Amino acid sequence: MVFPMNKLSDARMELANRIFFKLYQCANMLHKTGSRAVQDEGLTTQQWAVLGALSRPEAAQGMGVGELARYLMVSRQNLSGLITRMTRDGHIAISTDGRDRRSRLVVMTDSGRHVWLDLAKPKIKAYYEQALQDFSMGDMAHTLHYFLKLLDNMEKIDNAVPEDAAMDD
Known about the structure:
Layout: H1 4-38, H2 45-54, E1 63-64, H3 65-72, H4 76-88, E2 92-96, E3 104-108, H5 110-131, H6 137-159, H7 163-166
Antiparallel strand pairs: 1-3, 2-3
């Protein structure tokens, strides 16, 4: 005999599995199609995210490496290679933080600003329009709401991990 609670639990698990698999597929497609949208500028979606983070008014003076890693929700190790490539390409520079000489600040260069504002942003806007073409403003607001809820729950899970285990990420 199957109990109603087991059916409900099984149905919830099946829905959860489908949600997370679709999220995984969306992330992969964002990387694939988003990178294609900005490839002529020599960018990937990861580099697009770094330039986007650094283009915000609150990051005008730069962002610490750790602060940037937290904002993008990536490990410092993953960000390190990205910073090296973007510095080599002239999109960003590393400077010493005037407030703490031990800290390094990541700043967007004039060249990076040109690539971001003049070359990449118009293509990103067109990409967003294509990807969201059948979404109403309400659809977009609801999607954002649910992503924020999911992200908040995932951050709680991440914060529950002991510090030494989190360093392996």
